[in-house]
Design a protein that fits this description.
alpha+beta, Double Clp-N motif, 41% helix, elongated
């Protein structure tokens, strides 16, 4: 399925915002940021009509500034490729394992990581 020209512009703006922020990947949050700044789309109009566009933009910028936000998530599997969880970095800079149920525990290393 193809993007409309406006959707393509929003995706491009999201990519530029991610790049401007020093992020390596474009996430849904960058799309929301682009929509909060874009003026012409129906989605942008709805955000403005609900008076949330600027609050959304500000909150996203706050989240982007939080410690550990731009730390890549590393997928951890056992030697047979079974998913064990994602290795993430907590606010203190420690690696933690977050399993599929959201449980967190210190990650001592080991296992196989992939992006």
């Amino acid at each position: 399925m193809e993007l409309t020209p406006r959707a393509g512009q929003i995706v491009a703006l999201a990519g530029q915002r991610a790049k401007d922020l020093g992020h390596e990947r474009v996430g849904a949050e960058h799309l929301l940021l682009a929509l909060s700044e874009e003026k012409e789309s129906v989605a942008a109009l709805v955000l403005r009509e609900l008076n949330v566009a600027e609050a959304l933009r500000q909150r996203l910028l706050e989240i982007f500034a939080e410690p550990g936000y731009n730390t890549p998530t590393r997928r951890l599997t056992d030697s047979e490729g079974r998913f064990l969880g994602n290795v993430e970095t907590d606010e203190e800079g420690n690696d933690i394992l977050v399993d599929s149920e959201g449980n967190e525990r210190p990650w001592p290393g080991g296992g196989h990581q992939s992006d």
